[in-house]
Amino acid sequence: MNAIFVLIVGLGAMALGYVFYSKFIAERIYRLDPNFQTPAHEFEDGVDFVPTNKYVLWGHHFTSVAGAAPIIGPAIAVIWGWVPAFLWVVLGTIFFAGVHDAGAVWASNRNKAKSMGALTGDVVGTRARSLFMIVIFLVLLMVNAVFATVIAGLLVDFPTSVIPVWGAIFVALIIGQLIYRKYIGLITVSIVGVIALYALIGLGPVMPISLPETMVGLSDRAMWIVILFGYAAIASLLPVWMLLQPRDYINGLQLFIGLILLYGAVLLMGPEMVAPAFNNNVPEGTPSIIPLLFVTIACGAISGFHGLVAGGTTSKQLDKETDARFVGYFGAVGEGSLALAAIIAATAGFATFADWNAVYSAFGQGGVNAFVEGGAYIINNGLGIEIGLAETLLTVMAVLFAGTTMDTGLRLQRYIFQEWGSIYDIKWMQKIMPATLLAVGTCLLLAFGAGGADGSGGLVIWPLFGTTNQLLAGLTLMVITVILVRMGRPAYYTLVPLIFLLLMTVAALILQLKTFYASGNWFLFSLDIVVLVAAIFIVFECGTTLSRLRKERVEEGSNENS
After folding, report:
1. Using DSSP, how many helices (H) and how many strands (E) does the chain show?
2. Which residue of 314, 368, 480, 531 sits 20 to 30 Å from the alpha carbon of 1, by its own alpha carbon?
3. What one-character DSSP code corresponds to residue 2?
């Protein structure tokens, strides 16, 4: 199969989904109201609550959720064949992720920009809220710790990416000042920012930077992890307009340019999908495609982390409620397009099937490196761009998205500690600085406590990320469904994805439980049980709430007819 066909069908389907299905969901189900006063206006404080241009906010939301995961998951899942990965990404984006993301923004916006955890307490109950927040905390802990490890690895493996990665921060700071203090037009700022960013990418191969192999007793990877968390802590304390928004926005533009280059190279080169459409000869030890496909590819099809961003930062910056369609649903389409690029790069970015098979010799192989090397191969052959520069471009793209996710993720983790402080009346925990230190401290504790001196502890619990993340997506859909039922609106469009996700996720948790038990990994075995028990109790609480609401509506209907 030629990759051009896969590209056109995938992008065409997602475009039609946005034009038609998102319009139906926005107008008939969520009924977005342009006159509704959003929390960004009601609680405007210039720090977290900031009414924002929908294009800038889209850039923040999209790049916050589109970290390394929509690259890693699809680039691993093609081991089962490119067709299952392709179908899940495309259909998941249209009918799952878009509905989930726009719905989370809408639900939070309608409830004073509360997080999904706090919102669960309002619409379901305090017990469900407590369990939900445990799941949220675990997801954020995994995302922050693992993405720091991924970024550190890429900075070590591709030293040509160091200057453009860190230089992008200074570009974002300047852009924030130009937009919010100098009031320069968005188009001018966008052009200047993109030119500066790509100038840095060109400078990267000329001036590669590597840390010493050992510094103060830490390896170069471990040192990058410490530096990254130091930066993320500072970034999470700054007003969103100063760094978070402009960095996410310019990264969003950079992604689309990167995707245009990659997709343009595919159209010009016309590479063949050398990987099998359905792989019937998977390596020994590869788990069953069902249910593992649906948790291996989370971001790019549907991801619970998106709901955290939607209710944590995005809803606090929503200028008009109708912007939720563009920001939420189209944000999901943007991530789906990145996941599609990862599939093509990891299957058509090899000269022969033998080359592909050598990389995918075991489950878990591929990932970011397959995307970078495969994508660079396509760009080099299709556009003639030197292979080293192409690798730098794609590495910077992956690192910048993982970095923006860390920025947002640590801010969200700080919100969790502050919410716990409010719930349990712990005054000091409600303050920004102590909550930020707790967020950073727990991540570093996992990184170095579980991973030793190399700081790779996040990878220890990474096997549970997919299931925990997809569970969170299902629980977010459950909260949205309860809200819709309470408002007397059709809930099938969230209920069907909800049921499917819960079935796949619980099945995957049980399957992993057997694997952890067989291997004697008691830490992950215990953590798996915690997540599974939390899921069962939350489902029970939400099911009870839905049953009660249905009964009340039936009784109301009977009273009206009598």
Report:
1. 26, 2
2. 368
3. B
Q: Which domain holds residue 234?
A: 3-460
Whether 483 is covered by a domain: the verdict is: no
Residue 376 predicted with pLDDT over 90 = yes
Handedness of CA 158, 159, 164, 169 (dihedral sign): positive
- DSSP assignment letter at 372: H
Overall domain count for the chain:
1
> Mapping DSSP to helix (H, G, I), strand (E, B) and coil, where does residue 283 land?
coil
Helix/strand/coil for 216: coil
Q: Which amino acid is at 192?
A: V
* CA 404 – CA 244 distance, rounded (Å): 8
pTM of the model: 0.87
Tell me if 467 is assigned to some domain: no
HSE on the CB side for 107, CA within 13 Å? 34
In a domain, 258, yes or no: yes
C-alpha radius of gyration, the chain, whole number: 22
pLDDT tens per residue across span 104-143? 999 999 999 988 888 888 888 887 888 888 888 888 888 8
- Mapped onto helix, strand or coil, the DSSP state of residue 521 is coil
Q: Which of 513, 432, 383, 501 is nearest to 95 (CA)?
A: 501
Q: Is 285 helix (H, G, I), strand (E, B) or coil?
A: coil
Six token digits for residue 367:
């990932």
Other beta carbons within 10 angstroms of residue 361's beta carbon come to: 9
CB of 340 closer than 8 Å to CB of 11: yes
In a domain, 469, yes or no: no
**Paired strand residues for 52:** 318
